[in-house]
Amino acid sequence: MPNLLNETPGLIAFVRTVESGSFSAAAKILRTSPSAVSRSVGRLETLVRARLFLRSTRALVLTFEGQSLFDKVAPLLRQLDTSDEVASREDTLAGRIRFSMPSDLARYFLTPIFRDFASAFPAIKLEVGLADRQVDLIREDYDVAFRVGGSGQGELRVRKLANVNMVIVASPAYLEKHGKPRSADEASALPFARYIVRGHPSPMVFAGGKQFSPQGRVDCDTGQALRAAALHGLGAALLMKCVVQDELNDGRLIDISTELDLPPQPLNVVHAFGSMIPLRVRRFCDFIADQTKSIPGL
């Protein structure tokens, strides 16, 4: 039986390659070259005397032996990732936290993160990704992601932080032209600035399960773009109330969903650590949860 501890770099390279899908992606995570990752995996294959991947110019496919090894080794590496914190005091937490957050929420969270959390834990390195899309935590090497609505990948652990109130907003000129809808059916006939997810417009969902696919000539992939389109009268837009509160207060946008039954959406934090979430990540999620209490509209 080979001693796998003699090829720890190969085990790490192998697991990261499986999780990220390619030698190139694994190399970015490990901050090395694709050829170095390939050589490490090759040495591991020699040690275990089995082909772990079927290689082609376009893809890597795990063999039966590769899947078996991954199932055994990946949980152990996750435990090793957290072992440096087992005996740590709160003020000595160290390591990296790479997180993804919708760009519209950055205005509420980045200042306290940089001002308070970073000061409290100076040995923690922060990597910030602002994206309205649902990132792939494993393939893109994120520790946690903050999401409004569905949590996405089924294997992720989900922690609900708050409920987010939603509104359909439009400009005064739009309201004068189209009026305010009194039902979901009337809303479905209105032109919208649409939020696009993986090439398709996100449906408008109402309490009771009624929904429709909005129509319109402006498609956007960020909340900021939706807000801008609504401000310029190019369509109504479904947005988090907290991110348009200023525009609602000064009359630049009007809530046209007051007679509609829009359910709130959950603000979740998701991760792929299972029950072995690193302490630094847990403390970060606790910090964000506490910050949600001071955001108007949540």
UniProtKB/TrEMBL annotation:
Gene3D superfamilies: 3.40.190.290, Winged helix-like DNA-binding domain superfamily/Winged helix DNA-binding domain. One of its GO terms (molecular function) is DNA binding. Residues 11-63 form the HTH lysR-type domain. InterPro entries: LysR-type_TF_proteobact-type, LysR_HTH_N, LysR_subst-bd, WH-like_DNA-bd_sf, WH_DNA-bd_sf. Keywords: DNA-binding, Transcription, Transcription regulation. The keyword Transcription applies. Belongs to the LysR transcriptional regulatory family. This is LysR family transcriptional regulator. It comes from Ensifer adhaerens (Sinorhizobium morelense). The lineage of its organism: Bacteria, Pseudomonadati, Pseudomonadota, Alphaproteobacteria, Hyphomicrobiales.
